[in-house]
Design the sequence.
């Protein structure tokens, strides 16, 4: 499984349990102040709106490493709170609009810069910081060449390929209206799947509330272990290349 998805899934479940803890029980710290987790959760709830959803999904569909699993499911979970002003339908719509904006950025960037610059950038230090590589670009380009225009639809459902499939579409100068059409279909379907995940979590809010403390520590531990594993893997890779 893709490491970004594993990490994103752990963080998503952790954010749900933190939210459940916050909404179920009053804050009882010694100094009557919010804990670090509760500060994060309050920030997320206060800043989750249609604008932030659109912006984050645009980033996710561009070259920025923002996992959509950390945008749509938590937003839907929050929307299921009777006090929330968010609508699941509009979360999906604005999430899809954001994906189309980000994909369009990749499309035009690739079309204007060309293959040579894109591949060099992917292997640069900045590109690596953004979790890019020429191998990932090559994989996406092969997928596009093998499946043609529909790859911009199918690719939206495949990890790694999902946010990069618009790059080979731009390199190939695919018809832009067709590109937008297939991107909207694929992104919309993926957002519905993610929304379903958030909906199922919301339906089990009572169960999550009941075990919020245990789940919080569990997923925090998983997140720390995954982060440690990624750091260790990066150190080993650097030692091999040096």
Sequence:
């Amino acid at each position: 499984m893709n490491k970004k998805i594993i990490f994103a899934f752990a963080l998503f479940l952790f954010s749900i349990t933190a939210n459940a803890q916050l909404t179920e029980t009053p804050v009882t710290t010694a100094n009557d102040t919010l804990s670090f987790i509760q500060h994060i959760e309050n920030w997320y709830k206060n800043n989750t709106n249609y604008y932030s959803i659109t912006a984050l999904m645009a980033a996710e569909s561009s070259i920025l490493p923002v996992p959509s699993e950390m945008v749509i499911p938590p937003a839907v979970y929050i929307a299921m709170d009777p006090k929330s002003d968010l609508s699941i339908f509009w979360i999906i719509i604005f999430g899809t609009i954001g994906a189309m904006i980000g994909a369009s950025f990749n499309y035009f960037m690739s079309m204007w810069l060309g293959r040579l610059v894109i591949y060099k950038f992917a292997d640069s230090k900045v590109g690596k910081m953004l979790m890019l590589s020429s191998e990932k670009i090559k994989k996406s380009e092969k997928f596009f060449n093998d499946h043609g225009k529909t790859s911009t639809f199918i690719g939206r459902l495949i990890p790694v390929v999902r946010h990069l499939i618009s790059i080979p579409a731009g390199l190939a100068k695919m018809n832009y209206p067709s590109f937008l059409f297939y991107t909207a279909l694929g992104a919309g379907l993926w957002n519905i799947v993610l929304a379903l995940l958030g909906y199922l979590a919301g339906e089990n809010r009572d169960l999550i509330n009941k075990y919020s403390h245990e789940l919080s520590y569990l997923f925090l531990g998983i997140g720390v272990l995954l982060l440690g594993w990624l750091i260790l893997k990066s150190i080993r890779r650097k030692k091999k290349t040096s």
Remarks:
- DSSP finds 13 helices and no strands in the chain.
